[in-house]
Amino acid sequence: MNLSIFAAGFSKSPANMKQTMKKKKNRILPAIAGILLLICAVAGLRLYNMIFQPFSLPETVYIYIDREENYEEVVRQLEEKAGLPSEKIFRRLAERMNYPNRVKSGRYAVCDGMTMPDVIRQLRSGNQAPVSLTFNNMRTGENLAGRLSQQLMIDSLSLLNALNDPTRAEKFGFDEQTFILMFIPNTYEVYWNISIDKLLKRMKREYDLFWNEERKEKAGKTGLTPVQISILASIVEEEATYADEYPIVAGLYLNRLHRGMRLESDPTVKFAVGDLSLRRILYRHLEVESPYNTYRNAGLPPGPIRIPSIPAVEATLTPMQHRYLFMCAKDDLSGRHNFATTDAEHARNAAAYHRALNMRKIF
């Protein structure tokens, strides 16, 4: 048997071997490429999902960026309040979108379903969520400045200084004592980072809207200006515990004013003394030297003893028509009043009230 012929049947030439290897290579390379492509696709899909993974929040959270516009503080708040899907990816996205160099102060909402690109675009554009600014039951400028500073990016001392600035007050048509009357207690939508000047201008616009022609006409019928109405309303509100007595008390004080009588209002004495917690007014309190002591001074005090509420102002604009000239707290200490037309009737009411105070040892 010819072995060489037999071997030849099982051997291949170098050309055939090369061709075979090439075929195998052609089959392997696409497979490898396919695997790499699949890996890249999986990695890319994972990255995409992380980038566009929506925030899952039970309620809207707010990011506050103060005047320092600190990028690191923004990231901290987002992580703490909203729970970033990935801080590392957020930082890379923020850099790609050039946000670290474009941080803007304000109050920004992060809502359920938003993505990291959504948040970055909102922060970068300065698209703020407004604040519902509210203030009521404010007695002094200090109270007002403190309340507003709790809701806005405004320093309370800076705002108080502005409220006490006679030049600024005059610019808006008020003086130092009456400037706070420009703030009508209500709810207003403003931006958290509003400046003091813009806030004052906004409040002046709201004041002018409130004091429309109809209210000005009502004020004129009482013989008072809008500012005087507000001053009287502040006394009415301090005097009457219950709103249904506002029109009665307002009518009583107007009766006294029109007759040239002193108002003799106990709340003005408390304001003058500087102790609003007084439960009993003594003779020594009535003698205090102050333009706010309406037992010693005729007419209205130079400013309000609180910022009056809208219901108190409305009641003073539309007072009850009656002949009452005197009022005294009821002896049941309910906070309601007995009203009288004569001094003798008032004296009896006052005696009953003082007996009640004595029995309860309120001195």
Q: What does this protein structure show overall?
A:
The protein is mainly alpha-helical. Among the domains are: 65 residues, Dna Ligase, domain 1, CATH 3.30.1490; 75 residues, no CATH class; 110 residues, no CATH class. Helices cover 53% and strands 7% of the residues. It has 16 helices and six strands. The chain has a two-stranded antiparallel ribbon with strand order 1-2. The chain has a two-stranded antiparallel ribbon with strand order 3-4. Strands 5-6 form a two-stranded antiparallel ribbon. It is elongated and about 140 Å long. The protein starts with a helix and ends with a helix. The N terminus is likely disordered.
Question: Can you lay out the helices and strands and say which pair or pack?
Answer:
Blueprint: H1 3-10, H2 14-51, E1 61-65, H3 71-82, H4 87-96, E2 106-110, H5 116-125, E3 131-134, H6 141-151, H7 156-163, H8 166-171, E4 187-190, H9 196-210, H10 213-222, H11 226-239, H12 246-258, H13 266-273, H14 283-286, H15 310-317, E5 326-329, E6 337-340, H16 343-359
Antiparallel strand pairs: 1-2, 3-4, 5-6
Global outline: elongated
Cα(first) to Cα(last) distance is: 140 Å
For the biggest β-sheet, the strand order reads 1-2
Number of helices: 16
Q: Which stretches are poorly predicted, pLDDT < 50 over at least 5 residues? A: 3-11
**What's the SSE pattern?**
HHEHHEHEHHHEHHHHHHHEEH
Radius of gyration: 38 Å
Beta strand % = 5-15%
Main sheet, how many strands, which sense, barrel?
A: 2 strands, antiparallel
